[in-house]
Write a structure and sequence with these properties.
The chain is of the alpha/beta class and about 240 residues long. The chain is built from 9 helices and 5 strands, in the order H-H-E-H-H-E-H-H-E-H-E-H-E-H. Helix 7 packs parallel to helix 8. The longest helix has about 30 residues. The protein is globular, with a radius of gyration of 20 Å.
């Protein structure tokens, strides 16, 4: 027979293991975020590579790339069905990180369409881009993909204003204006500005569509951007 103290100790250890595991995962992501090299996400990229080596790749999928906002985005696969959808988010990756891993995240899957959903990491912690720098990075990503001569559509979400970062609003407005100007000469690119769908009457972001952190979208917020993307895909597929 085990003593009561031994049993209590064992149960305490079992209860704390999930907490320690979560703390370990968070510490790894924080360390990766603070590491400005794109190789910080190598483990996540390798995990995607291993996962898709053992299965038959879908034909002409919709590939969704970005950082945490893509990792937290659930339900899009069902909404866009029967189109195959691959959600390939990398930690708090920036557009420059995605350019570095273009072959693994885009080229390998030969998608019919690429969806880019940038996050706050473009402006905070991992990077400190200006509006002009962000638009330049997005243009480089599209140019890189087009250089392979494979026609496909690009759905670019404009930066989203969040309650946590009101100081970014002017920069985001400028980035959205510059993106719209750039897209005028990019017939294969469609821009999606979800800010109005996620805003209060005064134009500020509505906290009801964001998680408690004030940065990432909640289920209601994701539903709005998902339907926005679905409608645009259907319009493009229907043709003029």
């Amino acid at each position: 027979m085990y003593s009561w103290n031994t049993i209590r100790t064992v149960f305490a250890v079992l209860l704390i293991i999930p907490v320690l595991h979560l703390a370990l995962l968070l510490s790894k992501e924080v360390a990766a975020t603070l590491n400005t090299s794109p190789t910080a996400w190598a483990d996540e990229v390798n995990a995607y590579t291993r996962a898709y080596q053992s299965i038959e790749l879908p034909e002409k999928p919709v590939v969704v790339i970005g950082g945490r906002r893509v990792k937290l985005w659930s339900g899009l696969e069902n909404l866009l069905s029967p189109r195959p959808v691959l959600m390939l988010g990398l930690g708090n990756a920036t557009v420059d990180d995605l350019i570095y891993y273009h072959t693994e995240l885009v080229g390998h899957f030969q998608p019919a369409a690429v969806v880019l959903f940038p996050g706050n990491s473009e402006f905070h912690i991992r990077d400190n881009k200006s509006a002009e720098q962000l638009v330049a990075s997005i243009a480089r990503l599209v140019d890189l993909d087009q250089s392979y001569g494979i026609p496909r559509r690009y759905y670019i979400f404009s930066p989203i204003k969040s309650p946590l970062y009101p100081g970014d609003f002017a920069k985001i407005d400028e980035a959205n204006r510059l993106l719209a100007d750039w897209a005028l000469n990019q017939p294969q690119v469609s821009l999606l500005d979800a800010n109005r769908l996620l805003a209060l009457r005064n134009g500020s972001p509505n906290p009801d569509f964001f998680r408690m952190d004030g940065s990432n979208l909640n289920e209601q917020g994701y539903l709005r951007v998902s339907v926005m993307l679905q409608n645009l895909l259907e319009q493009d597929e229907a043709g003029p």
